[in-house]
Design goal:
heterodimer; A: alpha/beta; Rossmann fold; Alpha-Beta Plaits; 2 domains; 6-stranded mixed beta sheet; 4-stranded antiparallel beta sheet; 36% helix
Chain lengths: 310, 241
């Protein structure tokens, strides 16, 4: 089931919450939706789930337009809304049955689906309790269970791991990865390691516009541009001559000292060049003791900050 | 139709899981019974085998109770956000509105059905006009439909239950009293229109046993209008500027 979003715009008054965004998600892809608060993530999700109509543009889910075939689309989507709203006065099992009924799960399959969801989401201990009596983590699981009860082909999850403890987070991520093999998943989150751990592709959105789209490796490359390595050379006192020699290499652009570590240097390569081989050869020629050479990766946090702060 | 029934079943369960329905039924029967059998112009005072005293008191109690039942229907869902959950399932706005409307109507019908012993008792005491009694019940149901629709509309435009309750009473009081009072002080076309808008005119006609298509049309149009406005207010999130 593919999702194709075309020039989607949503205006609230004069504010453009979502501003002319377009992207595609293929079957079996897990797309991470990243962005600061108020960037337009939730609004986009609300539009894709047919909760509200866009001001302009269209989105097609398996070639069905969200403007026309809402009923069919809703049956194919499982949605976990932001803040996970639930009927607190209902028992977990009653609630799952209610949702299954609404989503048109066949009568003879409802009990099976409920049992499966209770198992998958680890709700067995709490299944007879009222939702209002559950802890936040268990409520989140109920939210996930209701989103998946009708075995939807597309899952849209708005911050699925908020309120979960670290063990549960790992379990839920594993579950999402597992689901992502057959289904199309869009998830939004603030937690950057989560995106790296679960998503095949990342979409960063800021002020309603897409500012980055790609795998985490692609984003890193794009953000850093040049390779950077940390080099440590021991037992040689003339630091300036080391710097000069390193600067003399063809592939090296900048050489910096490292604070608090007099033996270390930060070497930045020229664009699209790799300097590690030359650095190694230089050390061999000069008979320097090379004790460290570590490529420095740009963190996703840095990319995120760079792209979303103006 | 399935979705409407699923939604109204959930609403009914939530009525009966909380004290709301029990309080409603007990108080409705209590007030109705007290004024029908014991106090005021009760059956023994007027000395006729008729349920008229019950219908005239229920006419007022339902006016107060229905907004109390409908006030949370949409307002609460909007406040806690479950409306988003509901509307992203395979249901339309209309199905949500109709499901909730139906649940409320069923609860009131249950309360009215529990007053059937009054009917049987009066029947045992004297010669009762069966037609008038059944028409009276029909009138009650029609009137309830109109009030529920008004209540649903009031609940759809706010996410505060108290505001919803008061607004439903405010709209309801026009149909209950104000149009009636105004009608008596106007003559000509305006007087006729106001008289037609007053609920008592239509309810009294039906509870006397006269079923006129105009009266049916009156109640059904208020119901339809209320529900349409509720639906419009619910779907205003889709408005494209």
């Amino acid at each position: 089931m593919s999702i194709v979003v075309n020039n989607l715009t949503k205006k609230f008054g004069s504010q453009r919450a979502v501003d002319n965004i377009s992207f595609e998600v293929q079957t079996g892809e897990i797309l991470g939706f990243l962005g600061p608060n108020g960037a337009g993530k939730t609004t986009t999700m609300k539009i894709l789930t047919c909760y509200m109509a866009p001001s302009d543009g269209d989105a097609k889910i398996n070639n069905l337009s969200i403007l026309e075939s809402q009923d069919e689309i809703k049956k194919k989507i499982g949605y976990l809304a932001e803040n996970n709203p639930l009927y607190f006065d209902m028992a977990v099992l009653d609630y799952l049955k209610f949702v299954a009924d609404l989503q048109g799960v066949k009568k003879d399959k409802i009990q099976n689906r409920i049992a499966e969801m209770v198992y998958v989401c680890g709700l067995n201990v709490e299944k007879h309790k009222k939702i209002g009596e559950l802890s936040k983590g268990f409520r989140q699981r109920v939210g996930l269970a209701q989103a998946m009860i009708h075995d939807p082909e597309i899952l849209i999850l708005d911050e699925p791991t908020t309120g979960l403890d670290p063990n549960q987070i790992v379990e839920i991520r594993k579950l999402i990865k597992e689901l992502g093999k057959q289904k199309t998943v869009i998830l939004s989150t603030h937690i950057l390691p989560e995106v790296e751990a679960t998503c095949d592709r990342i979409l960063i959105i800021n002020n309603g516009k897409i500012v980055a789209d790609g795998t985490s490796d692609m984003l890193r490359k794009r953000a850093s541009g040049e390779e950077m390595v940390r080099v440590q050379i021991r037992d040689f006192d003339d630091k300036d001559s080391i710097v000069a020699a390193l600067k003399g290499l063809d592939s090296v652009a900048i050489v910096d000292f490292v604070k608090d570590s007099p033996d270390s240097f930060l070497v930045t390569s020229k664009e699209n060049q790799n300097s590690r081989k030359e650095i190694f050869k230089l050390c061999v020629n000069k008979n320097w003791v090379l004790t460290e050479m570590t490529p420095i990766e740009t963190k996703l946090e840095d990319i995120f900050r760079e792209l979303t702060t103006n | 139709m399935h979705a409407i029934w699923v939604i109204s079943k959930r609403e009914l369960n939530s009525f009966f899981d909380s004290l709301v329905s029990y309080i409603f039924i007990v108080v409705f029967l209590g007030i109705g019974g007290f004024f029908t059998w014991l106090f005021g112009s009760d059956i023994f005072l007027i000395g006729q085998a008729t349920l008229q005293p019950f219908f005239s008191i229920a006419y007022f109690t339902l006016f107060f109770f229905i907004p109390a039942l409908t006030m949370r229907m949409l307002a609460e869902e909007k406040r806690i956000g479950t409306i988003e959950l509901l509307l992203t399932k395979a249901v339309s706005d209309w199905q949500v509105i109709l499901g909730k409307f139906l649940s409320c109507l069923i609860l009131i019908s249950i309360a009215l059905a529990l007053t059937l012993p009054y009917y049987i008792t009066v029947w045992a005491i004297g010669p009762i006009d069966h037609g008038a009694v059944w028409c009276g019940y029909l009138g009650m149901i029609l009137m309830s439909m109109a009030y529920i629709a008004i209540g649903m509309f009031a609940s759809s435009i706010t996410n505060n239950q108290i505001v919803s309750f008061l607004l439903a009473l405010f709209i309801g009081v026009f149909f209950l009293i104000i149009f009636d009072v105004l009608a008596s002080s106007f003559t000509g076309t305006i007087g006729q229109i106001l008289n037609f808008l007053s609920m008592s005119t239509h309810f009294e006609a039906i509870s006397r046993g006269v079923i006129d298509s105009r009266d049916l049309l009156y109640f059904l149009s208020i119901t339809a209008l209320g529900l349409m406005l509720a639906q419009a207010s619910l779907s205003k999130r889709n408005i494209v500027e």
